[in-house]
Each structure stands twice: as structure tokens, then as C-alpha cells.
Amino acid sequence: MRAHVQELVLDCGDPAALVRFWAGLLGGEPVDRSPGWSYVDPPGFVRIAFQRVPEGKTVKNRLHLDVEVADPAEAADEVSPLGAVRVGGLVTDAQGSFQVMRDPEGNEFCFVTG
Fold first, then answer.
1. End-to-end CA separation in angstroms for the chain
2. Would you say 69 and 114 are in contact if contact means Cβ atoms under 8 Å apart?
3. pLDDT tens string 67-88
4. How far apart are CA 104 and CA 22, in angstroms?
5. Which alpha helices (DSSP H) does 2-102 contain, by range?
6. β-pairing, 47-52 with 7-12?
7. pLDDT tens digits, residue range 2-20?
8. Of 110, 113, 105, 112, whose CA–CA distance to 20 is shortest?
9. What number of helices (H) and strands (E) belong to the chain?
């Protein structure tokens, strides 16, 4: 059997707000399908959907997105006004650099190069 990833779904408290953050970061138009479900179709990537759940995020994600950028530090500065937060400092090794980030609801993602 072969399968195909149709979309990634993130649990969250405010789908309408979170889809706008990710659309601002990755491109695409935010869509609010219902008060508890929103999504965006970023160019060149699978749909990212956001579904309302009653509980808040309490632990580190088991899955995160690595978002390639030219300069992780500059990208972190640009998304901070949108509600993203740096986690730790910039890490650089022989493979490139990365900056761990959190979106406005605390979901981890990384800006990466290399």
C-alpha cells in the first residue's frame, strides 16, 4: 500500500488566529471552514489545517516543521511581531544553522539553512 499525505492538522485553541499566522509565514490564503476548523494551502506544500480542541498545549511537539530560510536570525526577527517566539539561540554546525521557534500557541517549528 502507498499512502499520500493530504494535510497536516494542528490542534489549537483558536484556529482562525493560528491559520493567519501560518499563512503569513508560508503564503496562501487562510480559510475558515467553521468556527473550529481553518486551513491554508501554502504554495508547494500540503494543506495545513487547524482544529479547535478544549485542552491547551502542555508538552513539546512530537512533530515539527523545518522551514528553510536564507537567514534564520533574520526570519525570527520578522515573525516575532506576528506572535512567534525564539526558543534558545541560533545553532550552527557543519550542516547549516537553525533557530527553534514557537508559534502563537506554542507549537515548535525551526527556521533552517543548509
1. 33
2. no
3. 999 999 999 999 999 999 999 9
4. 10
5. 15-26, 72-79
6. parallel
7. 999 999 999 999 999 999 9
8. 105
9. 2, 8
Strands (E), the chain: 7-12, 31-34, 37-40, 47-52, 65-68, 85-93, 96-102, 108-112
Decide if 65 contacts 84 (C-beta within 8 A). Answer: no
The residue behind cell 506572535 is: 83
Determine phi and psi for 22, rounding to 5 degrees. Answer: -70, -35
CA distance 83 to 45: 22
Which of helix, strand or coil describes residue 31?
A: strand
- Would you state the cell numbers that stand for residue 41, as one nine-digit string? 494551502
Does the model's pTM come out above 0.70?
yes
Which residues, in sequence order, are bridge partners of residue 43?
none
Please count the residues of the chain: 114
